[in-house]
Model the fold of this input.
Amino acid sequence: MFFERHEGGERAILVHLEGQDPDVREDPQEFSELARSAGAEAVAFVNVPRHRPSAKYLVGTGKVDELHELVHAEQVELVIFNHTLTPSQERNLERALECRVLDRTGLILDIFAQRARTHEGKLQVELAQLEHMSTRLVRGWTHLERQKGGIGLRGPGETQLETDRRLLRVRIRQIKQRLEKVRSQRDQARRGRRRAEIPSVSLVGYTNAGKSTLFNALTTSEVYAANQLFATLDPTLRRLELEDIGPVVLADTVGFIRHLPHKLVESFRATLEESANADLLLHVIDAHEPDRDEQIEQVLDVLEEIGARELPMLEVYNKLDLLEGVEPHIQRDEEGIPRRVWVSAQTGLGLDLIRQAVVELLGEDMFAATLRIPQTLARLRSQLFALGAVRDESHDEQGDTLLVVRLPRVELNRLVSREGLKPDVFIQQHTLQ
Done:
């Protein structure tokens, strides 16, 4: 990894600009949480009231002098800005402050580097880091910009900086090739699930909205969940059994955040495609968060970027236990279709309502009728029982089996097709209305 790992408690000064355009303004509270998640010990939080950022430092020269004095007075090692810095701004600030400077993108990348557990996750983080650092290499190599000379030092005709950039390009190309292989493997797995007619449901939402806690509660898994930003980084898939639907695949994915760095969206494309190819999205929302409407918009923006904005979606308002006077319930639209579910993943309140709503949304094309199964199709009868689709069984005078069934129509069509019959013809001939 390109960032040095620290034991924690690294002393830092946090710098936040006030008065910016609302479209690019960041949340100071969220900034503090990001720094805490990265392991920084914030010794000072500096608010800078500035409407027009400086091209050289982002902040004014007077504020730079104040920060310089504060850095030496508090003996800090790091200054973190709650904004995106250009490579030249970052370089100028490091020279002026005489310490390391990190911007918002670098901070989020560092958190991701700490959270990655799987080989794929580490590759994705490394790719984002390398692409971010490639424009900032001059910072670390200013003393090697000139061509070296002398006996034993005459190289192949490129500076150390050029050599480093070339090696970076090679490494980036290698990582992209390996991630492309991961992506093709994921595509193959998804095609297999489609052939088996297994629906996929993906949890999406703002970071720390409670996705992993909900995932654990629904699937009785033990995925790492914590009250911190980006606790989950690597995607996790589990099988979930739902009444009337059968098995579905539930995916827990990385949380989103306002102004999520584009490099991360690109690097995590293989992971985010689990959401882009889902049959249903569960948008987990922190019901107790004052800025929840803004967070909802940020999630929708990222879904737009990965091509998942138009997918069927159920909003899950989580952390109901932190609200007063609100009971678990399902909100429906004018047509009676579930649109919102109010639950508490922490206490388990309303989890049955989520299952009910998911069944309704995935089971819009359910087949419910009585099938007449002749004795020659006994295997079809046993398969219907194996799926748990049979509600009642009886026999008529001819000895045929009458089954009251309820199952997805696509599942019935698949079973009937195996018998060499056309599904529609079979249903018309053997269904008693």
The two ends are 65 Å apart (CA to CA).
